[in-house]
Write a structure and sequence with these properties.
- There is one protein chain.
- By secondary structure, this protein is an all-alpha fold.
- The protein has 2 domains: 1-25 and 33-122, RNA polymerase sigma factor, region 2, helix turn helix motif (Rna Polymerase Sigma Factor, Chain: A, Orthogonal Bundle); 143-212, Orthogonal Bundle (Arc Repressor Mutant, subunit A), CATH 1.10.10.10.
- It contains 10 helices and no strands.
- Helix 3 runs antiparallel to helix 4 (74-91), helix 4 (74-91) packs across helix 5 and helix 5 (101-120) packs across helix 8.
- The relative contact order is 0.10.
């Protein structure tokens, strides 16, 4: 088992009660924090007992944020993150080095989240969690009001899994289209298409936010005769 990765079974772990992935990896032992990611992964594959814990410590906050935003539920996100880290722990020897280690880890986490969403057909309706470990506050975020955040989150949950994942990675996580294509294992054009369709759907679902009084948009009257369009 990876060091300090919670085992499967009852999921009431320390990181869950703390609201974050704090228990996914513990403090590293003798592994230097200056060691490059690739060397850490290679060291882990060669049997270093501390290398994987240090690797996860470096990236767990961002990985936790991806899982939490994708699934929208702390329990689901923690389970998906645990599954992903177990997969990464076991698959380290097969890392080919054709991408950055962090990209490789993100891809495993995203796939774990998508698998969980597809299996359980997640339709989360819980509010976005408050900032905590691994969830730094976003100054200047236009969705600052918590009630609005809840509405937006529910709208995201209504999107097809693939559209939702693409939008979260591009719009919320700040990945480029090219990076998102790598993470999702699809073509860049597919990412663009999914984002465009997701945005169009969100525009419909969130239209009332632009018109909170519920007033219908005023449409120009259609006429007949010479002035007709």
């Amino acid at each position: 088992m990876p060091p300090d990765v919670p085992q499967h079974g009852p999921r009431r772990t320390a990181e869950r009660s703390a609201g974050g992935p704090a228990a996914v990896a513990g403090a590293s032992g003798g592994t230097s924090r200056e060691t490059p990611d690739r060397e850490l992964l290679a060291a882990h594959a060669a049997g270093d007992p501390d290398a994987f814990a240090e690797l996860v410590r470096r990236h767990r906050d961002r990985l936790w944020a991806v899982a939490l935003r994708t699934l929208g539920d702390r329990e689901e996100a923690a389970d998906a993150l645990q599954d992903a880290m177990l997969s990464a722990y076991r698959a380290a020897a097969g890392f080919r080095g054709d991408s950055a280690v962090t990209t490789w880890l993100h891809r495993i986490v995203v796939n774990a989240c998508l698998d969980r969403m597809r299996r359980r057909q997640v339709r989360a309706t819980v509010p976005l969690p408050e900032a905590g470990p691994g969830e730094p506050a976003q100054p200047g975020d236009p969705i600052a009001d918590r009630d609005t955040a809840l509405v937006v989150h529910r709208a995201l949950a209504e999107l097809p899994v693939e559209q939702r994942a693409a939008l979260i990675l591009v719009e919320l996580e700040g990945h480029s289209v090219a990076e998102t294509a790598v993470l999702l294992g699809v073509a860049e054009g597919t990412v663009k298409s999914r984002c465009a369709r997701g945005r169009a759907r969100l525009a419909v679902l969130l239209g009332h936010l632009r018109n909170p009084e519920g007033e219908a948009d005023v449409q120009p009257e259609r006429t007949t005769g010479e002035g007709a369009l």
